[in-house]
């Protein structure tokens, strides 16, 4: 049966374009089909005998949802696991910010018709309705941090008709950006990284204060002091300050040309300083490997120094670690594994070479460290907000700290993970930070919603994506489907 314009069912709206997209018998319960109305691709779904139709592309990076998984009333994106309600199009799991458009479906004489509003043709994502601040409402929610947790918290508050003042404080120079791209595409202009344009914050009365940092919190007075000396009152507070990159501490680490990747400016500097130059990446971490992968065809040479036998050996296992190492070696990245940096030597204040534990000396112009992160919680020292041994802020399943009206979200927190029987964990995943922000907002509004997201993480090396879901703390066995050496496989971690 061809798709497209058919005889429209009776009572059609003048602003709608309606197309007959399939016969009722073509789709069984639990099945999806990508159809077209006036060249607009639509995802048609049948569950429990009822049809629904939503946008066909994920609102995150535009992946085709027809290749995803349909589980009950949700379709899960095949790329990075975002979930959308098939009846409303609303986003219910992250990454991403926006919902899918939803369309009217009608079944008549065994034929399925979908109607699309002419104004929404070619639109594949939808911003959920939001309120604004109402003058006279004095309640203030202060969000410390400019990442996805703060942004999702602010948006969720407005989506749930919060009418008070929202202030987001970030030490960054930019509004919230798509930070996972920083290590994968370091040359991108800032405009293409923004999660929301500046006028979005103005439109929904979200005050955005850039280049400001919290230096202390006083929960008794309900005030936050910023690095400019100013004092700000809050009714409710969100701590979502994330983590900072751990710097190198060896002799020579203060030399010009030694870099960490933290901000948009860092990514830009690394890109500019490495093109046509020699680069050494210290730390075969996900960030380190992504940076090496990005620089492989841009720098004159790239060397990777790692302290294990293979990259990702502890988290993904030796087979996958070896595969990723081979991929980068094929792109002329040289590995120094089971090794470490003991000294960085310079000339005229600039990096010249790196001395390794093994005795090897590697010539270089730039050194980039990817050796882990430190939670940004130092400003809470005098606040009585509880932190763990790693300095992560301890929160419960409702994102609450031990102090009333003080919430935490994202990489800076340690929280109970549902799939591990509420074991307390600190997980630095973009998807989880987004979910934390939403749950924090709902609990600020007294909705009593728990965090129950399953962790999801992805990395991209030389165009190949590795995706990981769940929470692993070691394994006794890895079961593979497919072949790692062919770079097409599924791995199950058993303990």
From TrEMBL:
One of its GO terms (molecular function) is 2 iron, 2 sulfur cluster binding. CDD domains: Rieske_AIFL_N. Pfam families: Pyr_redox_2, Rieske. Gene3D superfamilies: FAD/NAD(P)-binding domain, Rieske [2Fe-2S] iron-sulphur domain. Residues 19-114 form the Rieske domain. It comes from the Eukaryota. Signal peptide: none annotated. Transmembrane segments: none annotated. InterPro entries: FAD-oxidoreductase/Apoptosis (IPR050446), FAD/NAD-bd_sf (IPR036188), FAD/NAD-binding_dom (IPR023753), Rieske_2Fe-2S (IPR017941), Rieske_2Fe-2S_sf (IPR036922). Keywords: 2Fe-2S, FAD, Flavoprotein, Iron, Iron-sulfur, Metal-binding, Oxidoreductase. One of its GO terms (cellular component) is cytoplasm. PANTHER family: APOPTOSIS-INDUCING FACTOR 1, RIESKE DOMAIN-CONTAINING PROTEIN. This is Rieske domain-containing protein. It comes from Oncorhynchus tshawytscha (Chinook salmon). The gene is aifm4.
């Amino acid at each position: 049966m061809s798709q497209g314009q058919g005889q429209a069912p009776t009572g059609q709206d003048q602003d709608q374009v309606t197309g007959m997209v399939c016969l009722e018998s073509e789709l069984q319960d639990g099945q999806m089909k990508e159809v077209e109305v006036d060249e607009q691709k639509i995802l048609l779904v049948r569950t429990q005998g009822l049809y629904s139709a939503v946008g066909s592309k994920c609102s995150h990076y535009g992946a085709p949802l027809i290749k995803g998984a349909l589980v009950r009333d949700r379709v899960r994106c095949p790329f990075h696991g975002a979930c959308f309600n098939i009846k409303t199009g609303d986003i219910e799991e992250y990454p991403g910010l926006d919902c899918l458009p939803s369309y009217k479906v009608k079944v008549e004489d065994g034929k399925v018709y979908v109607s699309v509003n002419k104004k929404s043709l070619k639109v594949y994502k939808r911003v959920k309705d939001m309120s604004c601040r109402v003058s006279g409402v004095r309640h203030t929610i202060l969000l410390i941090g400019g990442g996805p947790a703060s942004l999702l918290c602010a948006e969720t508050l407005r989506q749930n008709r919060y009418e008070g003042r929202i202030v987001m404080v970030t030490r960054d120079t930019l509004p919230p950006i798509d930070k996972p791209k920083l290590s994968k595409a370091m040359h991108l202009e800032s405009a293409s990284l923004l999660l929301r344009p500046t006028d979005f914050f103005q439109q929904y009365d979200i005050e955005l204060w850039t280049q400001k940092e919290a230096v202390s919190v006083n929960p008794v007075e309900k005030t936050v002091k910023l690095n400019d000396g100013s004092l700000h009152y809050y009714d409710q507070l969100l701590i979502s300050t994330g983590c900072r990159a751990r710097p190198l501490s060896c002799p020579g680490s203060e030399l010009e040309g030694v870099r960490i990747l933290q901000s948009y400016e860092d990514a830009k500097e690394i890109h500019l300083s490495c093109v046509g130059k020699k680069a050494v990446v210290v730390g075969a971490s996900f960030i380190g490997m992504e940076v090496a992968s990005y620089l492989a065809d841009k720098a004159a040479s790239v060397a990777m120094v790692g302290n294990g036998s293979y990259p990702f050996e502890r988290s993904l296992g030796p087979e996958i670690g070896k595969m990723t190492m081979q991929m980068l070696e094929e792109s002329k990245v040289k590995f120094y594994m089971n090794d470490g940096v003991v000294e960085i030597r310079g000339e005229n204040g600039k990096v010249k070479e790196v001395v390794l534990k093994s005795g090897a000396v590697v010539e270089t112009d730039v050194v980039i460290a990817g050796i882990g992160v430190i939670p940004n919680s130092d400003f809470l020292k005098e606040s009585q907000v509880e932190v763990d041994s790693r300095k992560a802020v301890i929160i419960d399943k409702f994102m609450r700290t031990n102090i009333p009206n003080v919430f935490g979200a994202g990489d800076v927190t340690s929280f109970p993970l549902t799939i591990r029987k509420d074991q307390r964990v600190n997980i630095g995943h973009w998807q989880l930070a987004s979910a934390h922000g939403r749950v924090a907002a709902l609990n600020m509004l007294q909705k009593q919603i728990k965090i129950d997201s399953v962790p999801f993480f992805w990395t991209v090396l030389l165009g190949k994506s590795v995706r990981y879901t769940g929470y692993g703390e070691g394994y006794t066995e890895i079961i593979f489907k497919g072949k790692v050496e062919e770079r097409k496989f599924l791995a199950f971690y058993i303990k």
